[in-house]
Design goal:
alpha/beta, nine-stranded mixed beta sheet, 9 strands, 12% strand
């Protein structure tokens, strides 16, 4: 049951319960559109003592959400039960996030006692939060997992990205986290997504690839070229190359990879929920600025809604999201230490990890190197890492196959980044 939806519906079907609901659940504890719908009901009841949808003059998207919520709420008398369920989920998420920050602090060599004090303080803000002793037990279990992972020779406890340095500083892509990777046109964003998807699939994780720019067939072709090392545009192949391509095609067809396009933000949320139900661990979005919201939304409003919806949807989720993003023209012209994704600042604010892709070449140099079959040098700048360090990872991109490979900082290739 979607408790957020039925709670929003109950607020309209059982107005007498709204004061008790408002004392238990704040609107920001819900994801959109249920948050806005619930907020309208609470505000109207505070002003008039009742809730009447006819007087609210809701916009069409919220009116459709109201119809869905009230139809789904079969037992309005259970409104307070729904409220407790929403509140408890929110609190579990908040405490889990606090514990996770402690784990990262301990793993990075921070003062352990101070870190534990922070999670105890975080837990103290919740009336029925787990006792600090229980939280510390969870922290210890997480530490043991990190140690076991390292002893087993793995770089990360999360989903591997395929880039050892990136995995080391982030501990991989963790469940419930939002990663945003941005870059200007032709920076290599889609290739990065294919490489991360390939690393996740090779690690036994399922991937949902939501493509809004290219067709699903183009994404499948890129995945096959990455796997085989044979460019998809090559047609005169050696027997070995033919065999490699056929093997890669079979691998893509049989892997736990779902490639799909969606019409709007509601379709995107549906895909995330489907990934949860079907056991896929990673959802990739290519790219955020193409996600449709309300027809009259500006780019700023649309990106704000998308960022907030993703953040809300991922709370306590078993799924992680890697979202690609454009950067603003100003950000592309004047690289700085800021995070300048195109649209609202909510994108960077919502991200657990924010990465900017920087090409080491001019447009002319990229064209010349591509024509000559030479690799392109790209830097993955980790500008934000909510739970660990930041840094730069130089990688080499083969534009024919889409393969990206981390290069050593002292290698010949790395000289491009000192220009």
């Amino acid at each position: 049951m979607n408790y957020e939806k039925v709670l929003a519906g109950a607020a309209y079907l059982n107005p007498d319960a709204v004061p008790a609901l408002a004392a238990t659940v704040k609107p920001e504890m819900l994801s959109e559109p249920w948050s806005s719908l619930y907020r309208k009901a609470v505000e109207q009841h505070a002003a008039t003592g009742t809730v009447d949808v006819a007087l609210l003059k809701l916009p069409k998207p919220l009116l459709e959400a109201w119809a869905d919520a009230t139809e789904s709420c079969l037992s309005p008398s259970n409104a307070e039960l729904y409220a407790r369920a929403v509140r408890d989920k929110w609190k579990r998420y908040a405490v889990a996030k606090a514990a996770e920050e402690v784990i990262q602090a301990c793993r990075n060599g921070a003062d352990e006692d101070a870190a534990i004090a922070r999670v105890v303080a975080a837990a103290a803000g919740y009336d029925d939060a787990p006792k600090p002793g229980k939280l510390i037990e969870s922290v210890k279990e997480r530490r043991a997992l990190v140690r076991a992972t390292r002893l087993a020779g793995r770089h990360t406890t999360g989903i591997p990205t395929g880039f050892p340095t990136l995995d080391r500083i982030t501990d991989g892509i963790q469940p419930g986290h939002l990663w945003v990777a941005g870059g200007y046109t032709s920076a290599g964003k889609s290739y990065l997504a294919i490489n991360v998807a390939a690393a996740a699939l090779a690690d036994g994780k399922g991937v949902s690839f939501v493509t809004l720019e290219m067709s699903p067939e183009e994404i499948a072709a890129r995945a096959s070229a990455h796997r085989s090392g044979v460019p998809s545009r090559w047609h005169e192949l050696t027997p070995e190359q033919e065999e490699a391509r056929e093997s890669a095609d079979r691998w893509v067809a049989e892997s736990n990879l779902r490639i799909v396009t969606v019409p709007d933000i509601s379709g995107l949320v549906f895909e995330i929920r489907r990934a949860e139900r079907e056991g896929r661990s990673l959802v990739i979005i290519d790219y955020l600025q193409l996600v449709k919201t309300a027809p009259k939304d500006s780019t700023y409003d649309a990106m704000r809604k998308v960022a907030q919806e993703l953040q809300a949807r991922l709370r306590g989720s078993s799924v992680a999201v890697l979202a690609l993003s454009q950067v603003s023209n100003e950000g592309a012209r004047n690289p700085s230490e800021t995070i300048d994704f195109k649209g609202a600042g909510d994108i960077a604010a919502s991200a657990d990890v924010a990465i900017l892709l920087r090409s080491a070449h001019t447009a002319e140099e990229r064209a010349e190197r591509s024509a000559a079959g030479e690799r392109l040098m790209v830097r993955l700048d980790v500008r934000k890492n909510r739970h660990g360090a930041v840094g730069a990872v130089p990688v080499a991109l083969d534009g024919r196959t889409g393969r990206m490979e981390e290069v050593r900082q002292d290698s010949v290739d790395a000289v491009f980044f000192t220009k």
